[in-house]
């Protein structure tokens, strides 16, 4: 499939016709001051990384296991000429189901031709555009059930600064666009993406030693990120990350930071972010089965972006469970005791108390972050961690450390090994529902 651009002939990511692309419906609510909410009809699309990629001529896999076919994909441009992204069977292949305003993601799904692990989806405005959110001065609320998520899993709901059309307009090489889930980026500058800027990321591709389905290419994709929610039934955190450049940007090699083989803090993005994890901040009775926030039950999660105009200076968290509004826990770590929300002052105090690199401040802190959260795309996902077994979220990490901040959750340091989680907890799942967005204090009661 070809397209002619201003600079001559270029090859596109094509789309296949073997499976029709039908997006699961997912409604959400736009609220106004006073609490009046209007239902919006939306849908979700799975990321292109999960899709079957095959030859334009037949059904030969362009990507199989964790390798590109060397004949079809000797380089990225040729690969993009020879290959297409296929439509998705959301429930049968990926274990994704929706009903009204709720979305359920199953962890492991055994399909007719393959076994799928995890998923990453985006909220769509229509079949060709992601829904864009301006978080400044607003409140984002959703209900979540993590009762079926054990140690080592992450039901993550977050925002990233992706292009609304998945990069289709910016990169004429990209025919697939938002309709097929292209254009992903985040503050880790991931290099495991199969397509970036409309071109296959097959150049320099190296399969990962500990993941039979993934590898890393020469390029990565960077952008600012707001982790509204990273959680399982034992631990949770919310975390802003900021990059120097606005919007999605392709990086190469060590400029992608740790994921590109360079220094962790060598990219233009803040990989650590400024997190608030109640357990890590010293309160071990706040989040978990039977605790103040009882993870055996669904909970409504409220995140408020406080500030004036387009400037955000604080991110507050509230929970609603059993009809009761519960304020976020206060930190008990020395030097941070007055904080139960995220601000520049909290971030500086936390980084000092834990002895961590203050990459959030180094990349501009809330002043720059405010500029990046006005055009954000909502991501809903479920994943396990082939790098450090999710210990950074729910256990002690680094595992041999006893310094403040290393204790992040109650899970054993031996937990979270993907092979174990995928076999023993294959039936794990997360359910997101009742997404609401509006002015401060308009989306919950």
TrEMBL record:
<protein>
    <recommendedName>
        <fullName>cellulose 1,4-beta-cellobiosidase (non-reducing end)</fullName>
        <ecNumber>3.2.1.91</ecNumber>
    </recommendedName>
</protein>
<dbReference type="Pfam" id="PF00840">
    <property type="entry name" value="Glyco_hydro_7"/>
</dbReference>
<comment type="similarity">
    <text>Belongs to the glycosyl hydrolase 7 (cellulase C) family.</text>
</comment>
<keyword id="KW-0136">Cellulose degradation</keyword>
<keyword id="KW-0732">Signal</keyword>
<keyword id="KW-0326">Glycosidase</keyword>
<dbReference type="InterPro" id="IPR001722">
    <property type="entry name" value="Glyco_hydro_7"/>
</dbReference>
<dbReference type="InterPro" id="IPR013320">
    <property type="entry name" value="ConA-like_dom_sf"/>
</dbReference>
<feature type="signal peptide">
    <location>
        <begin position="1"/>
        <end position="16"/>
    </location>
</feature>
<dbReference type="InterPro" id="IPR037019">
    <property type="entry name" value="Glyco_hydro_7_sf"/>
</dbReference>
<keyword id="KW-0119">Carbohydrate metabolism</keyword>
<keyword id="KW-0624">Polysaccharide degradation</keyword>
<dbReference type="GO" id="GO:0016162">
    <property type="term" value="F:cellulose 1,4-beta-cellobiosidase activity"/>
</dbReference>
<dbReference type="GO" id="GO:0030245">
    <property type="term" value="P:cellulose catabolic process"/>
</dbReference>
<keyword id="KW-0378">Hydrolase</keyword>
<feature type="region of interest" description="Disordered">
    <location>
        <begin position="402"/>
        <end position="429"/>
    </location>
</feature>
């Amino acid at each position: 499939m070809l397209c002619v651009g201003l600079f001559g002939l270029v090859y596109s990511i094509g789309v296949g016709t073997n499976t029709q692309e039908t997006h699961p419906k997912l409604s959400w609510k736009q609220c106004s001051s006073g609490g009046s909410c209007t239902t919006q009809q939306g849908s979700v699309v799975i990321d292109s990384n999960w899709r079957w990629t095959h030859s334009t001529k037949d059904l030969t896999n362009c990507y199989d296991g964790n390798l590109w076919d060397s004949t079809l994909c000797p380089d990225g441009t040729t690969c993009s000429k020879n290959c297409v992204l296929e439509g998705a069977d959301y429930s049968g292949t990926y274990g994704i189901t929706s009903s009204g305003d709720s979305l359920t993601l199953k962890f492991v799904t055994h399909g007719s031709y393959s076994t799928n692990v995890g998923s990453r989806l985006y909220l769509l405005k229509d079949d060709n555009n992601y829904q864009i959110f301006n978080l400044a001065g607003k409140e984002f609320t959703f209900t979540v059930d993590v009762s079926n998520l054990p140690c080592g899993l992450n039901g993550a709901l977050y925002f990233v600064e992706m292009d609304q059309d998945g990069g289709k307009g910016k990169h004429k090489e990209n025919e697939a666009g938002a309709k097929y889930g292209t254009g992903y980026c985040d503050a880790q500058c991931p290099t495991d993406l199969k397509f970036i800027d409309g071109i296959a990321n097959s150049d320099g591709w190296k399969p990962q030693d500990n993941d039979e389905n993934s590898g890393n290419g020469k390029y990565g994709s960077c952008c600012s990120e707001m982790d509204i929610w990273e959680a399982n039934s034992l631990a949770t955190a919310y975390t802003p990350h900021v990059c120097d450049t606005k919007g999605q940007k392709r990086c190469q090699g060590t400029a992608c930071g740790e994921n590109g083989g360079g220094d962790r803090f060598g990219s233009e993005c803040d990989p650590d972010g400024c997190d608030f994890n109640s357990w890590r901040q010293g309160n071990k009775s706040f989040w978990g089965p039977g605790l103040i926030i009882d993870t055996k039950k669904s909970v409504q999660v409220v995140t408020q972006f406080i500030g004036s105009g387009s400037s955000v200076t604080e991110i507050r968290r509230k929970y609603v469970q059993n009809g009761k509004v519960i304020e976020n826990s206060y930190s008990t770590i020395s030097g941070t005791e007055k904080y139960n929300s995220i601000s520049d002052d909290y971030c500086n105090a936390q980084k000092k108390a834990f002895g961590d690199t203050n990459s959030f401040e180094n990349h501009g802190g809330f002043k720059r972050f405010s500029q990046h959260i006005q055009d954000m795309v909502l991501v809903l996902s479920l994943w396990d961690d082939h790098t450090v077994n999710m210990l950074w979220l729910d256990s002690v990490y680094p595992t041999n450390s006893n310094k403040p901040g290393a204790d992040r959750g109650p899970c054993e340091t031996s937990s979270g090994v993907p092979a174990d989680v995928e076999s023993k907890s294959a039936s794990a799942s997360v359910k997101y529902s009742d997404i609401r967005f509006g002015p401060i204090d308009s989306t919950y009661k």
